[in-house]
Amino acid sequence: MQNILVTGGAGYIGSHTVVELHNAGYNPIIVDNLSNSRMSVLNGLKNITGKDFTFYQIDCNNKEAFRQVFKTNEISGVIHFAAYKAVGESVAKPLDYYENNVGSLMTLIRLMKEESVEKLIFSSSCTVYGQPDQLPVTEQSPKKTAESPYGNTKQVCEEIIEDISISDKSFRAIALRYFNPVGAHPSSEIGELPLGIPNNLVPFITQTAAGWREELTVFGDNYDTEDGSCVRDYIHVVDLAKAHVKSLEYLTLHSNLSFDIFNIGTGRGNTVLEMVNTFEEVSGVKLNYKVGERRNGDIEKIYADVTKSTETLGWQTEKSLKDSLKDSWNWQKTLTKDI
């Protein structure tokens, strides 16, 4: 059984990927500093899989501590999630974001090279496209100047990985450009756990429905979209997790591949107001929301062309928007406000 190191494996997307790796016959090893996750996630993983996964509470920038993970375990590949991810915070604290997101990747790759670990799946983002000129977005769409330091760290990290793959033919990597992950595991054992005020739409919707938040603000209803609100490509986190397993299998099968990039989304866009209406439909809860002013930096609409990931990786989404919102609501109902 291959050991796959999952950095940020106690986080939202990381934890769901741990489950899918386990289901596919891999042995995930989790590294997480718990700065944006909780130890309780490990209990959820055990309840789903029946297994206690090896876990290291380590910061990926702590090279000596991180090195011991490689020395103690025979690692076959790495999936790198660990990163700060709040766009607004990155504008306020750019140095923290560069140090953490870019620095941890460089530390990781140095250790991979030291220990002859050749396969890397990198967690990237559709933020690299900015406001696209054409829709849907393909992997060949031009990368725009990033709207935030967070988005720029993803661009820089992709470039570092590509440069390393050119300089070292034994190092092979895939970058997955996520669109908007939503939902939770159908078991309601794991899901999104935002600390403080959520940065993402769906946790804000579910927390408003649960009475944790007084109201939801829809930022703008005068965009050039079907109902005036922004359009995004919302993908169920379980479908997203499965894309990582497919990517790992693809890297293993294609030893001549040095570096490639894939969009991971549904291939369709939904407006913010459509999300609100669909949530009300699946939950039976009427949301208290208002329309506010546009937010600076918000992209009007973006959604993925997923032809390449479907045809090349043999991956496609299985879950609907209703599935995503139903699973998010069921997860929300398991939470207490003191999380």
From TrEMBL:
One of its GO terms (molecular function) is UDP-glucose 4-epimerase activity. The keyword Cytoplasm does not apply. Residues 5-326 form the NAD(P)-binding domain. CDD domains: UDP_G4E_1_SDR_e. GO terms for cellular component: cytosol. It comes from the Bacteria. Keywords: Carbohydrate metabolism, Isomerase, NAD. Pathway: Carbohydrate metabolism; galactose metabolism. GO terms for biological process: galactose metabolic process. Its EC number is 5.1.3.2. Gene3D superfamilies: NAD(P)-binding Rossmann-like Domain, UDP-galactose 4-epimerase, domain 1. It is an enzyme of class 5 (isomerase). Belongs to the NAD(P)-dependent epimerase/dehydratase family. This is UDP-glucose 4-epimerase. It comes from Roseivirga echinicomitans.
